[in-house]
Amino acid sequence: MKHRLSKQLAALQARLLGQWRGSRAQHLWQAWLGELHALLPAAIRTRLLPQVRERLVDWPLPEQIDEHPDERRVLLLPANMLLVQTLMLPSAAVRDLHSVIGFELDKYTPYPRERLHYVARVIGKDGALAKVQLAAVLRERLQPALEECQARGLALHAVDGYDARGQRLGIDLLPAEQRPARPARAQLPGYLALACGVLLVSCMMLWLDARTAMVETMQHRVDEQRTQVQQVQNLRRELINTQGAARYLAQQKAAQPTLSSVLVDLTGCLGADTWVEQLEITDGGGVSLSGQSAKVSALITRMKDCKTLSDAQFQGIIQPDEATGKERFSLRAQLHKEAADAP
């Protein structure tokens, strides 16, 4: 189980490396790292990022190999050991290039997939097609070369090869499980990438937090404005109600005759033998008056001639006044509302 898992991880790593090598993202990353390296002081750059010299070793191995611990040793295979060809594949196949090539490896080589160790990389694009370079080597040829290097104490960092023109291919056929551990200094780009990722996530979180605070502030302002609008609507409603009540009172007041017109009318209707001791007019238009008259029985008939009053009726009993020789009365009537429209 553990062996199968390691093989799956190695295949995944090889696939990712195949997609990474030669890609535009790798070129941008290397250019950015070069700019960062140039910004560092020379002493710090020499200490943290020492220049690693690459040592090319041709196969078959020479009899004498000088060992230098700071060298990056690359084994170069001759062109007759490699199967190199250029393929034109759809651009969608680039997303999982290693698996796509693995499924169709029998079409491109005369050997089955189990006997080959291969790498594939994108070297160009032509419209909807991707130009892919496939390099494969037989495992029974690669493994003896690796074993001999190990037997002679030669720690390899990569396995490359020559093409038919004698030029270096720029690939890495070294199996992932046989690659040496990277020193701490060589892992600095990885640490930089991790730091950049952490900084990017932090910036995104800070930006999101700022946006959240801004939204909360705006929501608070909107709530305050909504409360103010509600208060304004309540005040407007109260104002409309007050204006309606005032308009109603004004209409009611305008529909009733004035006190002076009522007094003038009463003076003409009651006659000279009658005087009023008390007069009261209510808001509803009711009129109550009391006084003394020499002819109380004729008052109802006289009140019918009043233009401002109607429905005159006696209230209570009629009592004689011994001091004046007249009769005391109390009347109740109703104001004419139509009188307000009279000229």
Explain the overall architecture:
With 343 residues, the protein is an alpha+beta fold. The protein folds into three domains: 2-186, Nucleotidyltransferase, domain 5, CATH 3.30.420; 189-254; 259-341, Gyrase A, domain 2 (2-Layer Sandwich). It is 44% helix and 23% strand. Strands 7, 8, 9, 10 and 11 form a five-stranded antiparallel β-sheet that branches. The longest helix has 68 residues, at 188-255. It is rod-shaped. Mean pLDDT is 79; it is low at 339-343.
Q: What is the end-to-end distance?
A: 115 Å
Percent of residues in helices comes to 40-55%
CATH class descriptor name of the largest domain = Alpha Beta
What's the alpha carbon Rg, rounded to whole Å?
56 Å
Report strand %: 15-25%
CATH architectural name of the largest domain: 2-Layer Sandwich
> Which topology of the largest domain does CATH recognise?
Nucleotidyltransferase, domain 5
Give a quick account of the main beta sheet: strands, pairing sense, barrel closure. Answer: 5 strands, antiparallel
- Report the order of strands and helices: HHHEEEHHEEHEHHEEHEEE
Say how many strands there are: 11
Average predicted local confidence, pLDDT? 79
